[in-house]
Amino acid sequence: MRDGRLALVSPTLAAARESRSSVRLPRARLVPFSLGSYARDPQAPLRIVLCPAGGSLEDDLRFLREARRRVLWPSPAAEVWSAIAGLRGSHDAPPGGAAAAPGRSGRRSALLLEGDVPLDRARQAAASGAPRDWIVERVQRVRVASVGLDELRRLGIRWSTLEPVEVVALVASKALVSARSRWRSLLPKNIPVWRLAHSGSK
């Protein structure tokens, strides 16, 4: 069953609360989060509205890059997702974003990490010679700070998740809207962009 809540995710909790007036969804229950608190909360809604603070264009772009790195992880390939679902006794269809599996010659093995994944567990897995494609249940189960994620990326770790976050919309300042070419590759295609009602960016 789809969660009726939407997470409103900003750089800080105060910014998320202040930005609620820019999001006019009368039937949705908006729950404000900072990016950090969203990435740590296993009960957080999987459907989100991203809302950079609008103070400066560079800060907004930095926020979108960090959101992409920390919470906007893809689904595994559809064939891998289906194999995992079968092992877990699930008959759900793969998420809409699951990619088609590559041909046999390009198929990769993957490591499924169930439960919480703190940095020490991730380091042990990386040192064990396990595959570098790692699949987790949802991004919030990965208890690794930004510095640790950078360390794992340098080791070649690629993350995917069985419960991917869905970006419902981006709330953006005028400056960020005008700079679409600089953030387009960070977010899903064709997501709605709403103007931020109050912004420090001109």
Topology:
Elements: E1 5-10, H1 13-19, E2 29-34, H2 35-40, E3 47-50, H3 57-70, H4 78-87, E4 111-113, E5 117-118, H5 119-127, E6 133-136, E7 142-143, H6 146-154, E8 158-161, E9 166-172, H7 174-178, H8 180-183, E10 193-195
Parallel strand pairs: 1-2, 1-3, 3-9, 4-6, 5-7, 6-8, 9-10
Please tell me about this protein's structure.
With 202 residues, the protein is an alpha/beta fold. It has two domains: 99 residues, Rossmann fold, CATH 3.40.50; 84 residues, no CATH class. It starts with a strand and ends in a 7-residue tail after the last strand.
Query: In CATH's first tier, which class of the largest domain applies?
Result: Alpha Beta
- How many helices? The count is 8
Oligomeric assembly: single chain
Per CATH, what is the topology of the largest domain? Rossmann fold
Mean pLDDT: 86
Please give the CATH architecture of the largest domain. 3-Layer(aba) Sandwich
